[in-house]
Amino acid sequence: MVAMNGYQDKNNYDKKKMAKTSSNNAKGVKADEGKLLYQLIPTETTKGLAEVLTFGALKYAPDGWKTVPNAKDRYIGALMRHLEAYRSGEKIDPESGLPHIYHLVASASFIGYLDDNKLTP
Prior knowledge:
Blueprint: H1 15-23, H2 43-59, H3 71-87, H4 100-116
């Protein structure tokens, strides 16, 4: 079957059946049971993590954190320092000007990556 735009329609959709279905006010179906709910991650968290990663990439190198010696222990230390600064009432990291909590998220994501990829003992 050739589509209206001249390209071969690989799925051979029945256009008449589709028109009838769409005019029935039928409810759509999306088979996403059991899939991760990425939409639950707050956009602020995604943006904050990206800001911290951008700061690190400009200061050091993009993805340089993957090759830091003793990375897991060092990122656990960094996570704890940012957590303690946050707990003591300091919300913003003085060096980067970004929230400590997002530095903590970055460190936690590094540790998770390193564990998942078994890149450190």
